[in-house]
Amino acid sequence: MVYVLDEPSAGLHPADTEALLVVLDRLKAAGNSVFVVEHHLDVVRHADWLVDVGPRAGVHGGRVLHSGPPEGLADVEASATRRFLFDRTPAPARTVREPAGWLRPGPVTRHNLRAVDAAFPVGVLTAVTGVSGSGKSTLVGALTEEVPGVGRMVTVDQRPIGRTPRSNLATYTGLFDVVRKLFAETEEAGRAGTGPGGSPSTCPAAAARPARARASSRWSSSSCPVRTRPAPTATAPATTRRPSRCDCAD
User: Fold this and answer.
1) Count of beta carbons in the 10 Å neighbourhood of residue 214
2) 221, 217, 190: which is closest to 205 by C-alpha?
3) Is 201 helix (H, G, I), strand (E, B) or coil?
4) For FRET with 92, which of 9, 28, 151, 244 sits at 20 to 30 Å CA-CA?
5) pTM value?
6) Does a cis peptide bond (omega within 30 degrees of 0) precede residue 8?
């Protein structure tokens, strides 16, 4: 059996990463082949064979710089991974900022926290640490705009900002909608019957129209048979089911 794992250590505490390494060793001991895409140095050092790709990202990457035992990467100067695995240069000294004040939420009683009081410094970078499930997010979640000393707050949690984990700022703000429409108006998209969704249009009426008509803003979604739905009746109440996808609408 071949197992391909894409960053299995993402978001894990170092203690949890040790448990992950035990699982990977068990898979290997059972005769399986395990391929791991990983940034965590402990997992990288634990590998029997290391494939390093680079040297940088995008058009500046795409080359295999090393394929062999991990210690062989020490001789590959072009590798960015090499510096973190083998460079023992001490980190540069920095000045630690002094707190400008304190935020004191609580006492917090939620989930596994029981009347917990905490003081968070203002004007500095604070890291809240602990194993997964210890209550870190619950404690930080007690910091709200109602806490004295908080003027304005921006919260970025682990939930996707849209309906899927693939959502990002461009999809959330609608920027990609404009880009998709521009691509859908090209002659190539018209010949392929491709709509703004990136795949052939699911609307029969749209597929039957010429490319120029499909791109026209005068096309109304009300004429699309996929989007058209009969009005609810007493015997057929309205439901919350979403309509089928259609790329007719602008």
Assistant:
1) 23
2) 221
3) coil
4) 9
5) 0.58
6) no
| Average pLDDT for the chain | 81
Domain locations along the chain: 2-86, 97-158, 169-223
Q: Judge whether residue 131 has pLDDT over 50.
A: yes
**In the block, residue with structure tokens 């290391």:** 50
Looking at the chain, list the stretches that DSSP marks H as alpha helix, in order from N- to C-terminal side: 14-29, 41-46, 80-86, 136-140, 169-173, 175-184, 187-192, 204-208, 211-215
pLDDT value at 132 more than 70: yes
Q: Quick one: tokens of 96? A: 């630690």
**Looking at the domain 2-86, which fold is it?**
Rossmann fold (3.40.50)
pLDDT in tens, 208-220: 555 444 444 444 4
Closest CA to 223 of 234, 211, 208, 237: 208
